[in-house]
Amino acid sequence: MNSGKLQFLLSVLFFYLNSNCSFFAQSGQIKLNNGISIAYESFGDPANTPILLIQGTGATLLHYPVSLCESLAEKGYRVIRFDNRDIGLSTHLDSLGQPDWAAIGPLVGSCKAAPLAYSLLDMACDVIGLMDALNIVQANIVGASMGGAIAQLVAIHFPARILTMTCLSSTSGNPARAPGDAQALSAMSVPPPDSSDPDTLADYLINIYRTLGAVDSDDILRKRALEHVRHRHWDPASVNRQLAAVMIGEYCDRREQLRELKLPVMIVHGTADPLVPIPAGKELAAAIPNAMFHEISGMGHDISEKFVPEITYCITTIAKKHR
To answer: Which of 144, 180, 202, 311 meets the CB 3.0–4.6 Å disulfide criterion with 225?
Structure first.
């Protein structure tokens, strides 16, 4: 290779590594002050205004598609997706044992203290801890499903740290809300197979994704599932602790606290969500002063590639309200 061609290739590489090109994601693992280690990926220029993507129960950072992260980064934001505690490559708290369902069950809907390994508020504190560890003073936050509840708790308890909030497929915690589709709930309750075969486990996860309303191709869903099983610490028992936190926290009405929020808010909900019916999203929007509500036709309880442009529009529309 002649020196001129080598210099050209090095120049191209330097441009991509030093540009705002979101095709390069920075991966990391960072220990918070509470001892939890959080695995994350960052897209876009670190100097840009941050958007934090908070995931739902049992979902790794993979459930926010790379295409969404890149789309937001191309709009001029630093985008951070991460694994919550007890999922993916973040700390798994096996030493805390399994939930005592007999003790937890009677307390669902009461807002009373329950014997949990941790609460949704503890997970909200992880978000603030991640921001602290990454030297982020303020951020736009986005939460899907359980992540939406966590985002709400961050906004309620740490309002000075939040620029805007977007909640997808989320509720207000009202325990009297309409239940999800019985067939979907039944399918979600089926435990994973007792197998270490990646393809068997991927088949199980793909069925869950389809049950939740995913419309991506089988190839895309299989890639997501295999990435989780092979590379992000498949550990279904750890998800039980997240589920226990959800059973208490997501059935504790937050509407009174939400009425005190004073920040731009976008509520996004799919018309085909089988787990959280769209009236729950409308109720959430009605509880927050001046919140915007956007329904996405045909979207279920999953962030499928088809809906990335519309979700990008929603997130950036509300984020611009602060700029």
So the answer is: 202
Average pLDDT over residues 217-244: 97
Tokens of 149: 């509840």
Q: Kindly report the backbone phi and psi dihedral angles of residue 144, in degrees, each rounded to the nearest multiple of 5, phi listed first.
A: -115, 130
Q: Which tokens hold the place of 262?
A: 């004073």
Alpha-carbon span 155 to 107, nearest angstrom: 25
Neighbours of 278 (CB within 10 A): 18
- Are the C-beta atoms of residues 274 and 300 closer than 8 Å to each other? yes
Query: pTM higher than 0.90, yes or no?
Result: yes
What tokens were used for 49? 């205004």
**125-144 as b/e: b if 16+ CB within 10 A:** bbbbbbbebbebeebbbbbb
What the chain holds in terms of domains, given with CATH numbers, is: 25-180+236-319 (3.40.50.1820)
Q: Which residues contact 320 (CB under 8 A, 6 or more apart)?
A: none
